[in-house]
Request: fold
Amino acid sequence: MDRHYLTSLLSPQAIVVFADEDGSGLARTVLAALKAQQFRGRVQFLGVETSGTLGELSQAQADLAIIALPPKDASTALGIAARIGCRAAVMLGNGVSAHDAASMQAIARREGLHMLGPNSLGLQRPHLQLNASAAGPLAAPGPLALVSQSGSLTASMLDWARDNAVGFSCVVAVGPHAAVDVPEVLDFLASDAHTHSIVVHLEGIGNARRFMSALRSAASAKPVIILKAGRTSAGNEAARTHSAALVGADAVFDAALRRAGAVRVRSFVELFSAAKCLASRYRPVGRRLAVVTNGGGPGVLAADWIGEIGLTLGKLSHEAAAALQPQLPPHASLSDLIDLSEDALAPHFHAAIDAASHDQAVDGILVVYSPKPDSDAQATAKVLAEMRRSVSKPLLACWLGETTVLSSRVILKSADIPTFRTPEPAVSAFGNIAAFYQNQQLLQQTPPPLTGLAAPDVECARLVIESALAERRTVLTEMESKAVLAAFHIPVTPTAQARNANEAMQLASQMGFPVAMKIDSPDVSHKSDVQGVVLNVSSGVAVRETFETMMDNVKRLQPQARINGVTVQKMASAQRGREVAIGVVCDAALGPVITFGAGGTAVELIHDQAIELPPLNQFLARRLIERARVAQTLGAWHGAAAVDMQALEHLLLRVSEMVCELPHLQEMDINPVIVDAHGAVAVDARMIIRRAQYEPLGSGHYQHLAIMPYPAYYRQTVPLAGDLEYTLRPIRPDDAEMLQELVRGLSPESRYFRFVSARSELTPGMLARFTLIDYDREMALVAVLKPQGESQPERIIGVSRYITSPDQQSCEFSLVVADAFSGQGIGSRLMQAIIDVARERGLTEIYGLVLAHNPTMLKLMQALGFSIQPCIEEPDFRLVKREL
Reply:
């Protein structure tokens, strides 16, 4: 399970090259690049005229084929590559049409090859001395991986890296119409030991669920920085709700990256700046950046930009400042900036950096140096270079000037210290990397589709929607929309529909004055635009007059609109309530998102929208509220009491449940929601529906969501001997420590049977990979022993797991049970449960490798109906398989 299916592509031991020296310029470039390096594996050059039965073909064996030929010959080369055992191919080229690309991909699938291309600039693996690209000379080895959908950007990045002492673990230029795409490369890099951080350039997303799955997996193990092209977009003219009119695809992409734990940069320059920090292997733990400077002006510029981009200026604690002050020049100031004054020398910088590096109130250090007549720029640079390894926090440098500091910048670059010419990009670079820490908190959240609140009446809501669809309507009336909200226990104002003025007057009298009156029409998106909303109507006569005036206004302003009547509702009685808006928008690439912001009639003018991908939990709901500007008005404000924040969070959780359980929901506005100290109530609602593209399968697959929810429905309680019981449930990210304790408690023999190594514990990367999983493509079920007393903690006593194979039809399993609970049926129950999940997900076969001298596991597999066969590739193992 540890060997990724792209290993043959990205870590080959032997390669075969199909390229003609008399061919295209690209072929000549690739041949020259390959011959310029001493690839550490075997390399052989073949031609497409090779028969495949004698001569060169009989001697050739390889993992990877590198093909730089015209499309017709390239297809032939793919067939030859498959016959000599290649499992992967790099198809170098450009200008191949979508039709020809699809034909090549079909050949690759038929031959069982993972193909990078056909419009790819290739790949580089510097530690293998492999340059299978036309992107320029081989990059220097380093910890940074680059994945790009643009060949020209890849070449530019490599050219920049050569002058900035940045090395790479892997460089992959994917190109358009790619067979192996960005998500698959990210999936490999997540567990690649040579890669410590990843930079990605995106131009588009294909499969949202697959992209989010791979990105979350990679970002859980190492920092991922993304530059995406196409940030601006025209307004959505067809939007029929405020939320859809306000939210563009780029805002949704930002929300997806936050939830995936990745960080986005906005420009090519920022990407380079972030790459500098990543190449230095910095792992930030917060957003407080201290500025050490010998010039007040440049230091203030840095401090201004820190505030501008939402960072915090790191200040020394009182104790640290008091200890540092005697070591500095007389005019040094430590109140905000660590301003060493113009008299500062190299030892003063050393003392200040040392103090900041040990202060818990500082997360990163920016040294801004301004050349002075009596100062020594090189000596100060050498101080930073010497301190680089002893300072665990991010250390950045900004050496102002040009001629007098050139040699200093060389010293800093050679010490892997990110160096900038002005303060602003240095601060931005720290901000981009520090955002990784904040987004990791969102990544750890894997909520279930349904919260722990009272169960909603999902069937009632579906019946309302299906009745409208049966009438060929895609817009629910206000009455229907509120019925759906009520089915999910969202408080709504009582509403009734009046078809004439007399009915309106009678309904208003029954409800009690004052009332609100609103036009009821599927063709009117925004009621205020046609004077279709009147509030605080206080008498029966006023209700009659309002009804007739409203009908006349709508017929005059929108004569084609179909009018069902007018809704009448009791005015909300909230005291000093605030108006907010909650919405749902479906993005073409990433599916539904939930929006929150200021409400009322001026919502599009205010343009206050925060966005989050479902499903939500209370942590995510609170963060969503905090990101909106209207959050500043929800506390005690101008004599009004603070709102009931828990009620608002619960309302957002209910909306999340709606999004998860109703794939029919395309757009929704709940505007306004009036929230005060006593709760929250939905005053108006509008829903746009569609025929569901995905229906929940079995216990629910939620295919319309970009992020698979936590599958809590697999949870079950199982009795155990001795009046004990354990809970069988899917693994969660917060199970990491319990999983580590399970591994530590295994006997050496059990650890070897599971990991085929003598490891006594899991590495941090393995823990992240085993606990923060994508439930759509893999599953891990844990048996958690319930404590007998309050003093005893829960503990994991067994784990079963499967990972879907690249063919998307089969899966590979693993199983481990604590030695103290062996022979009690836990392994059998875990295996049967994981088999049931795999079958429900539509997989057709489950298989695994078991050591030949592990009779207990082999006996269990036989009892569960697995066939046991010799493993030709691994004689020490047995291949166990079962049809599902």
